Description:
Blueprint lengths: L5 E3 L6 H10 L2 E3 L6 E4 L2 H38 L11 E5 L1 H13 L4 E6 L6 H16 L3 E6 L7 H12 L3 E4 L7 E4 L3 E5 L6 E5 L2 H16 L2 E2 L8 H16 L4 H8 L3 H14 L5 H10 L3 H5 L19
Parallel strand pairs: 5-6, 6-7
Antiparallel strand pairs: 1-3, 2-3, 4-10, 5-8, 7-11, 8-9, 9-10
Helix pairs in contact: 4-5, 8-9
InterPro entries: Sig_transdc_resp-reg_C-effctor (IPR016032), TrmB-like (IPR051797), WH-like_DNA-bd_sf (IPR036388)
Organism: Kitasatospora misakiensis
Protein name: HTH luxR-type domain-containing protein
Amino acid sequence: MAxxxxxxxxxxxxxxxxxxxxxxxxxxxxxxxxxTMTVADPSRIAGRxxxxxxxxxxxxxxxxxxxxxxxxxxxxxxxxxxxxxxxGGPIEYALGVPEINQQIESxxxxxxxxxxxxxxxxxxxxxxxxxxxERDIALLxxxxxxxxxxxxxxxxxxxxxxxxERITEHGAEVRTLAEPFKRLIIVDREVAVIPAQDDNxxxxxxxxxxxxxxxxxxxxxxxxxSIPFPGATEVPQEVISRLRTKILRMMxxxxxxxxxxxxxxxxxxxxxxHIAEFREEYDSETLFQLGWRMAQHPPxxxxxDDASFPGLEGGDPVHQPQS
Length: 323
């Protein structure tokens, strides 16, 4: 503007702003001197640009309004395509403990190769033990492999010890694991029964090969970390040490006593006895003092146990389906 609205078109120092002004139409070539640019009326240019932009905005608005229907039609077409998928095995559900037990009984009795069981919780009812012991011995005589995992509290229950002693005499393998784990039954590596609710009032019967493979791997991981349980009356010191380690670790983490007992499959009375022993060892009058002193001076059991502690899982069932 200082130059009377005229600008040299060859000046390299203003190449960028000159190009922008040309794009908007605010500069136009001088008809008398092609090497010079002259300024156009801004008000006229503004009116033209506003009209163009409004037209473009209206066009985009119309396209955006039509897009949902257009993509909906494409979605229907995509859904009708033959996708490369393979159907998995079905999942059935059994409701109520009696129905669950009937399903399990039928599957186990018809096993041809192997039955794997992870059975958390404490002592099992004597009536169930008496009912399944002869069944399991018959399976073993037919050549069916039988492996079972309990929690350490099973070692303190006389009916369970007697059951374990009898089936191990016929070739079964039983172990205990001082960790929380879920109930699991796998038959012939083809079908599995797992809880579908925390109270075990609903069970899922799974036959999908991929899920079965995953559950078998989970069981084998538990099995490797377990300690053999031949049914003997005397509880091995290793079992006691591992159980105490888990209790100590969970206490240091601030887990409540009821959750600890439920997770490890022991009674709250048994847990209280262990805690009383810890308080005596640490010369602590209160649980607060015990927790503080354990945090300051971790027990050698925990220091020696560098394995990661698994996540806690709730769900101590009121009723326990038989395996």
